[in-house]
Amino acid sequence: MTFQPKPPAKIMVQATGVRKSFGALEVLKGINLSVSNGQVMCLLGQSGSGKSTFLRCINHLERIDKGRIRVDGELIGYKEHKGYLQEMHEHEIARQRIHIGMVFQHFNLFPHMTVLQNIMEGPVGVKREPREDVRERAHAILKRVGLAEKVNAYPRQLSGGQQQRVAIARALAMQPKLILFDEPTSALDPELVSDVLDVMRDLAQSGMTMIVVTHEIAFAREVADHIVFMAGGEIIEEGKPGDVLGNPCHPQTQAFLSKVL
Ligand code: ADP
Ligand code: MG
């Protein structure tokens, strides 16, 4: 019997030396991180530490000043030519964003569309997929997030937790390579948080690559493969949940955890 060496996990997201300033304020001071295919990274840190800005850089909603971000090997937002970077055209950036789902704190659903229309809009309107295929997929995804009976509801008729699950369904319908979550449960009433976290846990178990900014430490401990702590635009500590959360080294990590735990 021959032993096949296990192929190394493919790197889905790789950030190297990412810097970003708003005017004189340097918000990202050289971020280096990578997320392997199928892994969940939780990004923790105090408000203002640069977490949202970093997520937004990954799909080029913010332009980075220095460094590189690659998703599935492809440089985001720029083309490299003889060592120089040239920003892509808007339609090329839009093509890259198709593969990168994003779920925000404030669900951002289209208020004038039903749940089904919200979910079908991207695949039909942006990816130009056949409507009937997308409809079938949308129903399956709604079932998966526990909202099969809400297909024809409007966002205002749903609770915050249900709206957020629609937002996750909408991201999934695009069949992304990666989903970015920016504090997906922070705007929810406490009793609605667990339904959303259950959906995210299910996604993680199904092998979706995820970067999750969250203050839900118990979720991070259970679901994350890797935890990254940011402070003042830098990564101050990272590692496995048991190590980082159980035995934090950096004083700012200790202070943060003592506040949220
Ligand atoms: P976090 O998500 O960790 O709370 P953010 O990435 O939202 O942090 O913000 C990091 C810093 O960048 C904050 O000081 C914030 O005020 C500033 N900032 C974020 N977006 C902008 C912007 N568009 N213009 C100017 N400053 C910004
Ligand atoms: Mg934020």
TrEMBL record:
Main subcellular location of this protein, as a coarse class: membrane
The residue ranges of the ABC transporter domain are 13-257
Q: Provide the membrane topology annotation.
A: Peripheral membrane protein
Subcellular location per the Swiss-Prot or TrEMBL entry: Cell membrane
Gene Ontology MF terms = ATP binding
Keyword terms of this UniProt record: Amino-acid transport, ATP-binding, Cell membrane, Membrane, Nucleotide-binding, Transport
Q: What is this protein identified as?
A: Amino acid ABC transporter ATP-binding protein
